Amino acid sequence: MSRVAISGIGAVSAAGIGAEALWQLAVSGKSAVRAHDFPGNEILSVGIFGAFADFDPSEDEDAAILKRCDRYSQFAHLAAREAVTQSGIDPELLRGPRTAVFIGSGIGGMTTLDAGYNQLNSGRRFMDPLSVPKLIPSSATAHVSIQYGAQGPSFAVCSACSSASQSIGLAMMLIRAGVVDRAIAGGSEACLTVPTIRAWELLRVLSPDGCKPFSNNRNGTVLGEGAGVVLLESEASLAARGGAPIGWLNGYATTSDARDMLQPDVDGAAAAMQGALDDAGLSADDIDYINAHGTGTVLNDVNEATAIRRVFGDATDSLLVSSSKSQTGHLLGASGGIELAITLAAARAQIVPPHINCAEPDPKCEITLAADIPTNRPIRYALSNSFAFGGMNASLILAAPEV
Question: With bands split at pLDDT 50, 70 and 90, how would you rate the model's confidence at 158?
Fold first, then answer.
């Protein structure tokens, strides 16, 4: 099977446009979560989000394309463009049946859907005539494949908070199997609308004062928005065009708890991490850093920490773990994409990003959290976790470019 290279990566987040802006946020030890107002938000109990507040699609170089997109598809387009540009690939090589596109989303075009309901509820009969193609969860995938003329397998992966990681893992599997030579893959989400936020509030999982993963005083997560997209290529196709990797995707596994919609399960999470290790041909001692799912909710954090301890055993004591959600918010279906971007940047820089907002580690979470400042550390292999409602688990393992 072909070795799979990461040749480009793009991100949109509360840090702004760009994977570099995201990395600078990660190593700063600061949070981009802040108060953000919405029309009608007086009914909400929480007011802080990882929002990309200053985005104006009319000012973008591809404004004509973005005009036809829901906000989540706009984010996917921007992240894909950055990944393609960074890779240095001739866009003509992306055309045809040897390129796949998989952009995951947990919700799809919620901005368009809510705007339509608001228009109807205000007594107007007018709605955006492009509402249906804008709101469908496959819209981002379709827009990206159209933009680059990619005619290979293209569809959306919709598995809640594991959507992006499963999209990237699926792309890796198809490249390994020789079905395609390259793939644009990741996730995008833009659901910071009043009805959506209120629905999350009713689940009692949102924090009013910040996401504090693995901290004893944690009280929930914070919603964010954005996209994370990678360009993956087989080692052979990358070499044929004279390209260079910015990292390698070495392992992937996905599992299903098959037990409950809301309650996480240690067995499923542990099986995903162990499966990724097996897929990469690595042992627990080979992993130097874990970017945890780390939502800041009581059950998820304890579940993930317990699963890490089960898989890594004594190696857990020297294995540094951090969560990015305290800085970006929880991007739901896009979280695996931007967290992979941070993990890759960490491996390239040989720096473990800070783990912030943890005043006192929860003693039930028996893992070694990174410091609240950047930590210089050799990173050969790193693991990124994504665990979703419905018990859908995904783990990805990547390596620094020189490995």
Answer: very high
316 and 343 both lie in a single domain: yes
Q: In sequence order, which ranges of 177-297 are alpha helices (DSSP H)?
A: 194-202, 235-240, 266-280
Q: How many domains does the chain have?
A: 2
Domain that holds residue 115: 4-240
Q: What is the pLDDT of residue 39?
A: 81
Q: Catalytic residues, which ones?
A: 161, 293, 330
* CATH code, 311: 3.40.47.10
- Total residue length of the chain: 403
Strands 226-234, 4-13: pairing kind: antiparallel
pLDDT at 37: 86
Residues 6+ apart with CB under 8 A from 65: 77, 143, 147
Angle between helices 139-148 and 71-87 (to 10 degrees): 40
Interval 55-110: pLDDT, tens: 999 999 999 999 999 999 999 999 999 999 999 999 999 999 999 999 999 999 99
Same domain flag for 230 and 323: no
Of all residues in the chain, what percent carry a pLDDT higher than 70? Answer: 100
Q: Is 238 left (phi over 0), alpha (psi -120 to 50) or beta?
A: alpha
Give the residue-averaged pLDDT of 160-189.
98
**DSSP letters along 313-345, please?**
GGGGGG-EEE-SHHHH-B-GGGHHHHHHHHHHH
Q: Which among 346, 364, 46 has a CA at the least distance from the CA of 355?
A: 346
Q: How far apart are CA 107 and CA 189, in angstroms?
A: 7
pLDDT of residue 1: 67
Give the tens place of pLDDT for each residue, 296-351.
999 999 999 999 999 999 999 999 999 999 999 999 999 999 999 999 999 999 99
The identity of residue 26, as a single letter, is: A
Task: Indicate if 216 and 317 belong to the same structural domain.
Answer: no
Distance CA 22, CA 190 (A): 17
Is 376 inside a domain boundary?
A: yes
Residues 384-401 pLDDT 10s: 999 999 999 999 999 999
Does a structural domain hold residue 245? no
Domain stops at, among 240, 264, 289: 240
Query: What would the DSSP string read from start to end of 71-86?
Result: HHHHHHHHHHHHHHHH
Same-domain pairing of 35 and 161: yes
How many Cα atoms are found within 13 Å in the side-chain-facing hemisphere of 156? Answer: 27
